[in-house]
Amino acid sequence: xxxKENLQNSRPHNHGRHSLKYKICISGAAETGHCAPNADxxxxxxxxxxxxxxxxxVTGATVGIPYCAAKGAKEAGGIVIGLSPAASEVAHLxxxxxxxxxxxxxxxxxxxxxxxxxxxxxxxDAVITICGRMGTLNxxxxxxxxxxxxxxxxxxxxxxxxxxxxxxxxxRGAGNSVFESDPEKLLDAVIAMVVARxxxx
Length: 201
What we know:
- By secondary structure, the protein is α/β, with parallel strands linked by helices.
- The chain is built from eight helices and nine strands.
- The two termini are 27 Å apart.
């Protein structure tokens, strides 16, 4: 328990009054039909763990894996911020047909999926991949190029089970990536990387 409390309270203080929260992005498949059978439950658990660690969950304000994570975080009393590809709530709901529940705040970027992906990863302190398709690969490569801490929840299907090989083929090194099949161990490793990165600045 002490380890978790230390991770939670290790954020540098802002003018000695507040402690800023780490923002953890969950990146994953909106369409989960190709994911491992338990991927949605693991995503929900990851959302809950993020909330319990005192972090803020950031999602692409979409369905599937990110939605499951948002549900888990909100049910655990956490804060969830979504970045939408749409330019307005109306477009978010009607054009993109995306949800608004389980989020405290949705930012309507108006940049479509590819532009949203860039803002989503740049706005986060770390990115965790669960399952995923091409959009998830795009988010991962943005985070990788930015040398951002990235965690990959393996054994969830899709891109999450291919990224280690993709990194090897790319011949650019492992980056700041960690691969783990246990959600709690993965999150603790990712937060540790974020803490170390913030201390080195």
